[in-house]
Amino acid sequence: MTEAAAPIVSLAGLCIGDGRENLVKGIDLEIAPGERLALVGESGSGKSLTASAILGLLPAPLRVTAGTVRFQGTDLAGLSRKERRKGLGARIGCVFQDYRGSFSPYHTVGSQLAEALRTARPMKRKEAKQMALDSLEQVGLPAERAYASYSFQLSGGQLQRAALACVLLLRPELLIADEPTTALDIVSGRSVMQLMLDIQRQTGCGILLISHDLNLVLDWADRAAVMRKGRLVEEGPCDVLRTSASHPYTQELLAACPSLDDALHRHEGGHVHEAHC
Asked: Which pLDDT tens digit goes with each residue over 198-242?
């Protein structure tokens, strides 16, 4: 029997708070190489804070108060932002809900892509520009025009595509996508989700998708983890959760979805998590 690959990300007993109160409470979660894991829950459930802990972007005064955050075996919780940038480099990619925040309005989108590439891998400007143009074309943008555009000259869908072009350039081991379609229309949102699948096929990266939309999650991810009030209440393969969710909150989210396919085979129920912190 082949031994399972070590996880890209491992959260163990993760608690996040300000020293007086924990907003995220005892999260145990792993992401395997090449896996699409969705972290789903209503606003304020702690899912984006959990992603921010991995990225080292927790807003003050919040911090990791207990537990560990490991990336490829390295504990990230005690590292400064400078140490994270030096140690991780381009190994973790991000796509955010606020697509306009992904690019500075003072430089062209293309120049920022090329600079990100040159920061990760020293190369000549001409080579970096051509690679940036190629990546913009691969995500379905008019490459020359997008390269020369400022962020305010592109639509939301185009900016999310440009952010994914950066991911394609840097080829990270993990992509964190925090509500990447929330601010987009349905057509643009579906296109962005498909692009993430295409990028995963090309790079083999794992993906952590943060979403409040369980219906979207079930159709897209391999596995889903459900958060409520800072706790992880249930996780399992999406086909299992679709038909055999064990926790009342997961069942409530499912009931709010459009009609599910009754013909799906039923599976053993998902694993209900116990409280930690």
From this structure: 999 989 999 999 998 887 888 899 999 999 999 999 999 999 998
Report CA dihedral (29, 32, 38, 42) to the nearest 10 degrees. Answer: 10
Average pLDDT rounded to a whole number, residues 41-66:
93
Whole-angstrom CA distances from 108 to 128, 140, 159, 184 are 14, 18, 12, 22
126 within domain boundaries: yes
Q: Indicate the number of domains in the chain.
A: 1
Q: Examine residue 118 and state whether it is found in any structural domain, yes or no.
A: yes
Does the residue 148 lie in any domain?
yes
Domain presence at residue 90: yes
Confidence (pTM):
0.86
- Residues 158 and 136 sit within 8 Å (Cβ to Cβ): no
CATH number of the domain to which 41 belongs: 3.40.50.300
Domain that includes residue 185, residue range: 34-56+80-271
Length of the chain: 277
